[in-house]
Amino acid sequence: MIDVIVAGGGPVGLAAAVRARLAGMEVVVVEPRPGPVDKACGEGLMPSAVAELAALGVHPPGVAFAGIRYVSPTQSVAARFRHGPGLGVRRTALHTALFERAESLGVRHVVGRVEQVRQDGDRVTVDGLQSRWVLAADGLHSPVRRALGLERSAPGPVRFGLRRHFATAPWSEHVDVHWSPTAEAYVTPVAPDLVGVALLGPPGGHFDDLMSQFPRLVERVRGAQAVTSERGAGPLRQEVSSRVRGRVLLIGDAAGYVDALTGEGICTGLRTAAAAVEAVREGRPESYERDWSRATRQYRYLTTALLWAASRPRLRSGLVPTAVRLPRVFGWAVNALA
Ligand SMILES: Cc1cc2nc3c(=O)[nH]c(=O)nc-3n(C[C@H](O)[C@H](O)[C@H](O)COP(=O)(O)OP(=O)(O)OC[C@H]3O[C@@H](n4cnc5c(N)ncnc54)[C@H](O)[C@@H]3O)c2cc1C
């Protein structure tokens, strides 16, 4: 019998598959989209995500960045990572690197959408395939999570993300985060001739409308061709009542998400994948909820706090000036998330 079916072949699902395979398990990944999977993402891998991937034998091509820089119309402040650089990586390149590693280890891939998950006794049946465990890595709006009744309504402002890429040489050695009164723009170098721009803000509006809130950035990319189409994701905040239901464990965005404001999703997701694989390997699924909480705590607290401040206009307008005045505090926060 299959040991683990992974529902969803995004970065977290594929990393979980690699990890489970390295632990000697028989693994099948079910993913509906064939070929290199693209997604709305800032595409900045934090240093600890780079290290987690390297430990799995995954080395995606990309552009190293030294830290995070906050930019307002009049000021900017940068914080360098203390333990090595992050890496800007196109999602398609990340997918290819993870997919090839999984395949080289003997992970089986099924092109399809998980529709039905049935549990009885010591097995789970996924659309006719039987397995000991299922790891649901099917993203922000996880159909598996919904089918199991594990969704909860999310508090706070509703936010969405949009992204496009511009054919221009990166101009910053950092991931730049531009702040407007209601939105943020993340600029990540992903290739020597390519930068990604991810916009985060309230729902409604197209990429160009939101982008016009950032005149400094618009000026930077003026004349550069937009080489990818607009892609979006959201609502970003997702609350989950429980991350374990019998032999099904939720990982990555499927397990709950706060916001993309701190660029932490992949890093945190990789940690949840590691915790879930360890839990099923040792046959103790009930401990995963606690392990998930521990693995994601720092991200959840810091991102929730920043989001809270960012949603109050007076605090929001003070964020960049405060970071400029207190560079050590800014540096601490950036490195706590790195
Ligand atoms: C605008 C934006 C910017 C971001 N910026 C960053 C950043 O800079 N750095 C960072 O680390 N993170 C960032 N994130 C977060 C990051 O994109 C996610 O945390 C990450 O993609 C989560 O990976 P995942 O594998 O859990 O889910 P996904 O990447 O969403 O993958 C889920 C997969 O499941 C598949 N699937 C869906 N339904 C089914 C089904 N029924 N059966 C089987 N498969 C299914 C989908 O096709 C998909 O391939 C950003 C997010 C957004 C929205």
Give a short overview.
With 338 residues, the protein is α+β, with helices and mostly antiparallel strands. Helices cover 35% and strands 26% of the residues.
Q: Explain this structure to me?
A:
- The protein has a single domain, classed as FAD/NAD(P)-binding domain (3-Layer(bba) Sandwich).
- It is an alpha+beta fold and 338 residues long.
- A hairpin with a 4-residue loop joins strand 14 (175-179) and strand 15 (184-191).
- The model has no long low-confidence stretch (mean pLDDT 96).
- It is 35% helix and 26% strand.
- The strands form four sheets. Strands 1, 2, 8, 9, 10, 11, 19 and 20 form an eight-stranded mixed sheet that branches. The chain has a seven-stranded mixed sheet with strand order 6-5-14-15-16-13-17.
- Helix 1 runs parallel beside helix 3 (91-105) and helix 7 (265-281) runs antiparallel to helix 8 (288-310).
- Flavin-adenine dinucleotide binds next to helix 1, strand 2, strand 13, strand 16 and helix 7.
